[in-house]
Amino acid sequence: MTSFLLLLIVGYVVAFFYTLSASIKNSRRLAELEKEVSSLKAQMAAGVVPVAMSADDREQLKDATDLAAESATPLASQAETETAEAEQNVIPPPLPIPSKAEALKQEDAVSAHATTTQATPKESFESRLGARWAVWLGGITLGLGGILLVKYSIENGLLSPAVRLAMAALFGLLLAAAGEAIRRRAVPGIAAAYSNAMIPGVLTAAASLTLFGVVFAAYGIYEYIGPTTAFILLALVAFATLGLSLLHGQALAGLGLFGSMITPALIVTETPNIWALFGFLTVSWVATALAARYQRWKFVPALANIGLGLWAVGYTMASTTVLAEPVMFALLAMIAGLIWIWPGEVYEHVADEKPPVTEGDAAKPANRLLVFLARPPLAINLTASLAIVLTALAMLASSAGISMHPAFVVAVLIIGLAALGAGRLNAVWPAIFASLAALGCANILAQNNLEFLSTFGSVATPASIAVDHSLQASITRIMGIVFLLFAVEAIRRRTLRDASFGTLWALIGSIVPVGLGVISFVEYGNLTRDWLHAAYGVAIGLVLFGAAYRFDRSSAPAFQRPVNILIVGSFLGFLLTIHALTNGLATTILIPLLGFIYVLGTRRRSWPALAWVMALALVIVLGRIAWEPTIVGPQNLGTTPVFNALLAGYGIPALLAVVSAWLLRHSPDLRVRNFLQALASLMVLLTLAILVRHAMNGGVLNDAVPTLGEQSIYTLLTIGMSGVLMTLDMKSPSPIFRYGSMLAGCLAIVNVLVAHFFVLNPYFTGENTGRWPFFNLLLIGYLLPGAAYAGLAFYARGKRPQPYVALLALAGAVLGFAWATLSVRRFWQGENIADWKGFLQGETYSYSVVWLAIGVLLLALGSRFDAKSLRLASAALVLLAVAKAFLIDMSNLEGVLRALSFIGLGVVLIGIGLFYQKILTAKPKDAAAEQ
């Protein structure tokens, strides 16, 4: 009996706080509405015309009045309310009865109307103390008094257990009767003002807890009744509580739901009937859904979803053998109830309502996304989705034997959730959860060898445990097909009402079927050639493309985004077919070829996605190249320069990229046009570079450090690419060509600074420069890039910013200086010019002569072309020669060479000075002559 007393105490406390927390929000809203409606009626009775309101305000006021009348006044006391109004001679004008869709707008209308009216006065301390706290404390005190009375009877042996139980049951029934009697005689307006402190509700909750305690004590403590009788009685109490909640509110419904969900846990039996268990839970859920539909409740149905989901997950994880059928059917019943019972079609109006837009928010996609994801009833959809997905994961994670193949159970649950997501506009989260669960569970199924009992009820033996990979693969593909059909149907039926919903299902239809097909192909298929998965990919691609074509014929703007998404999805389906039938070089060529076919489709249809498909195809090709640069594998790559698999594997996609960029040169979509141009330029440069790499390394592609000759070719290619992009920009202006040309030039300069002068410089590496005096490594590594930079700088004059042109000219001059300097060293040291050889006197003197000669040459060129950068480079070389003469030649040269070094330097300096004097004195005369 002690346990029974403790249970009663805990029950009363739980009822108290649960009633308080669940009802406080609704009570405040209803109190405000009651005062507003009363004020309006008084004004009408007095003949006072309210302030003019807009049509929207009048509609919101009517909805608010209906909500107050429906929620605040119980059904049984409506007649008394009308009598009271008649006595006061207050006859309000008739108001139209709202439809179901309008009824669901009440909460938003109430909050909007409340902002335009005067703030509700704060409730006084006297009201809280006398009208609320007294009720709460009275209910608790009443329950404690009954418990103390029973405790006294036990301690003094006054009554037998049977009599005590009978009296407790009678006490509970009297409490319920008292609650109903008080409810019928309630004063009008109390329900609205003190809905969270209603005496009838508190008495009824106390009665329910008392009866729960009586039945459990009779079964668990005194063993007067058996488990079946106890189960039936507890269920009756729970369902009665749910029924009474229609009169007393959502808090009592939560108590009844809690009782129904905990009833099976209170009944202990050695031979549990799983079908009966989940059948009872399903009936409890349906009863809650029916009550919620009648009263428009959102909180209690969410609790029902949680309760059923916890039972499903708990049973699956805790049982040694899992009977999957009742769990699956209970959850499917929950999904069916969400579709047809509650919320059903009631919230289908959400797409017709425009979300409130504040200043500055109209152009924020994030706000629209949040409104889309937060569609009511959010709690119901989230809890139902979690219940389904967590149960599916529990089926996969359970180490027990399962009566059905886990793949089948998971597929049925996920497809059911997807059906809910596709059938109702408000079911955004079920659609998202179903999509993620389909991909995740399919991957888990493929990665793990899950076991199930082929004959449930027998002891699991190795012979009775089966793992059927072919069934798993088939179920995975079937799920993909079902998702595809759901997507097409959802887009067809719902997009005109809600473009966002159509976009969501277009994404699901394009990603989930293809993703499931990829999982099935990679995990179960024949990676060499698989005709089954190829047919699956073709089917997906054709259905998506056909659906896009059909939807586009409607010419409705709402279909524009779904159509483009479906086009991309069709490409992904065909892409799966290409991978299922080909590999290596053929796959690399067919992917951009398929994208090029979509580009040709722009001649017939103006779908923006057609061009983006080609861009996606090129990105995929680049990903394949990064994964396997040899395209066909190192062992299959020939050593023949240029004419090998690399030419086709890199060259054909690059060619298709160039042609696509040219075909789309007049595309109105600037982003895709620029992106394709950038990809085409990158792939052309990549093709040339990889062919050079292959040829310079003897037909072998590896990660070895390139030689100076190979790096020089890369630098020349980059310089050439800069010039080509500059030419294209002159003919067809584009930011990709404009900035890409300058980027290529800067990258080439970085190569020069890092590789040519330091990392690969033969002076530091000791690399042999070759036998030929002029045509050697120094020509390729320094003179040719220098000349290329000089030509690019000359070509860029007037076409690119002056600092960039000067940088190019300076890079060319530095490379020419390096070629001349290293050529001098090669003349004196031979083919090997490594630093360990030191310097000869003649070599040291030659540097001064050559540097001065280059300085004079640069000065002449700078004067001829009026290039200030060349003249500055000339001055830098002359200063370098002067510094060398005083710092190096003075100490290292001897005899005639030292004298000649200074004599030559002096002559050159005097000549330069004379040159500048003539130039500077001639400029004013020329200027005067021109004037």
From TrEMBL:
UniProt keywords, alphabetically: Membrane, Transmembrane, Transmembrane helix
Pfam families from the UniProt entry: DUF2339 (PF10101)
InterPro entries referenced in this protein's UniProt entry, alphabetically: DUF2339_TM, UCP035905_mem
Source organism superkingdom: Bacteria
Chain intervals for the UniProt region annotation (Disordered): 72-92
Transmembrane segments: 6-24, 133-150, 162-182, 194-218, 224-244, 251-268, 274-292, 299-317, 323-342, 378-396, 402-420, 427-446, 471-491, 503-522, 534-551, 563-579, 585-602, 609-627, 642-663, 675-692, 712-730, 742-760, 772-792, 804-824, 844-862, 869-887, 899-916
PANTHER family for this protein: BLL2549 PROTEIN
Protein name as annotated: DUF2339 domain-containing protein
Organism: Agrobacterium cavarae
